[in-house]
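Possible race condition, two jobs.
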Amino acid sequence: MIEQVKRIAVLIFLIVNLGVALAVSYTEYVLFNRFDEAFLSARILNKGVLLIVSQPQCVFSAFLRQEVLSEENVSNFLRNHYVVVEIYPDPDLTGHFNFDMYETFFSIEGKIYTYEDLYNIFLLRGTPTNAYFSKDLKLLSSFTGSVPPTEYLQIAKYLSQNLFQSGVDWEQYKKKEDRYLGVSELKPITAAEREYLLKNAKNIRSVTLEELASTEHSLDPHLYYIIEKATEEEIRGFLNQIGLTLYSVYWLKKDSE
């Protein structure tokens, strides 16, 4: 009986700690006032970008940060698909962007705007405004306001699967359950890109396969993992061998080591 109680206590401990590990606050993955860095990081990571235009005293923006972006299902899904950045209308900070009559997209060679300019350009009817960009960093859609976590997650799933571009009706889509979470991706990066991510990105961890093996039961599958000193074949073999799902894995190209 005592041993059974001990086993139950250990199981509860593991579940509680796993829950803590997976509950990620918005501060742990949302970049703040780092416009160019978000888009450049997303290009390396092969992610879209979710740009949130807000105000420090906006109660709806506060609700979005604390009740929506920090909700477990929302934060996990966003980390799988987007680099999230929030900006205030700061006239002293600048970012690059390209606006023309046909396409709106990020380009580091684009025109320089202050954050105050970007705030006025992207703002729809108030704050927060949520602007979604595809993996090729083109503007997909945007909306103003903060909705409950369940609906916010539906919007992110709808846009991340290109359903908007495919003509899938939003009103019909949101009536059905969508269990899509994402797919696991492995991508090579250069040494320079590695250094850029470690300096500028959030939600990122640099590890070896040995370190992964020693912590596999407490890993957050939604982090961006840079695997050091391993080839793609070694990484795939390791993940398959232990049956571990990590959504975003990166390794160094051999010619960049």
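Job #2 (started ~2 s after job #1):
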Amino acid sequence: MSSISSVWNLYRGPRRDRADLVRFRDRKLRQLVLFAYERVSFYRDRFDAAGVRPEHIRRAEDLGALPLLSKAELRNAPVEDLLARGSDRAKLVSHKTSGSTGEPFTIYRTRTEEDLLKLFRLRAARQYGFRLFDRRADLTAPIGAGPVDPLQRAARALRLLPVEPLDSTRDVAELLLEVERIRPDVLTGYPGVLSQISRLLPYFAELRIRPRFVVAGGEPMTDLMRRQIERGFGAPVYDMYGSNEFNLLAWQCPAKGHMHICEDSVVLEILRDGIAVKEGEQGEVVVTGLFSKTMPFIRFRTGDLAIKGAEVCGCGQPFSTLDAIQGRTADYLRLPDGRLVHPFVMTAPLFEEGDGWIDQHQVAQTALDRIVLRLKVRRPATPDEIGRLIAAGESVCRPARFEIEFVDHFAPHPSGKFRSYLGLHDMTRQEAAHSSRRENANTTAPPPDTARRTAGQD
């Protein structure tokens, strides 16, 4: 229970200063590395192959001696080798990742580890004004009820942390009515789903949905999404960055706007070609979880991209910062001349002026030499507006062809998230899924004589 006590103290208030935070982080890191070497065969083999002993890792800067870890390596290893010796899978909490990158994976934690990681997220929400008795509606992916642990039972008995999870894959209008029924003090969910609901609110003037604040996470939030959510709900919107492997990684500073890294829970590196980037530079997010020992994650490549921020936040809290979360490496556009360009480079400037008529957008690379901007609009665009979009898109995508397609709606991703960017990897998987469905349909009935489907409505 000492760990519970330790994190409860963290929940009540962050570390006093930067030096205190770093000492705490490095102490937990040394404990993790020693435990992983002694109790997890996967990491013992990995450390030995790299010629690294636990005593070589004394602080976060020493992690560079260890190789980076991919999800594919974890998936290819026997589960027993990934778990601490003596772990009983039947008694562990499991999380299945969505597999949006094509690599689904199951994560295991003890109930204590699970509750510890949740406390870090609660601490962050507390900085936005969250109260233990606040009623919360959570628009996330479909989830099963699962077993109720003692901490949950106690919270329910005391009527603490009341939350109603809502299936984000349901019809948006139905979700809106469910949120109205709950009338939450706090609204949380995927930004794509929240922005869709917020755009419906003007058509339901009789509804009284007035949360004190909104927390979005689980996928990148564009500036357009943020403005739509703020305008629709009339409340401030805060961004939380997390993952199934670690729970909370960073949260938006309510005073300065950039992201605090949750450094007393994780060591988060921003790397380019394996080297730490400087402030203001972009790199891949690599994370080590300090409180996950049952299934450790040491120098895990998340596949996400971020821009490194200041070493200490200007708000006075001791955390390092991220200036922006820019999505997955798989979202990159791969152009015929060999360049890699993230769609954010194109969409960030485009939608400042498009906010008045663009309702929703999606960038899809359908082939190496073809990139499509799909738009759902509030009103028809003028020739000048279309011309500016085309010119801006072509300047980024050349020598690939850049096209605009108008759609009536976007079908939700099976995970419940809205994908703003679909790279070649996603399109290849999508086409394979469509081919499989067509083959299955052909075995039972001849295909109907239908017109070609509108792009974006697959």
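The radius of gyration is 23 Å.
Logs attached separately.
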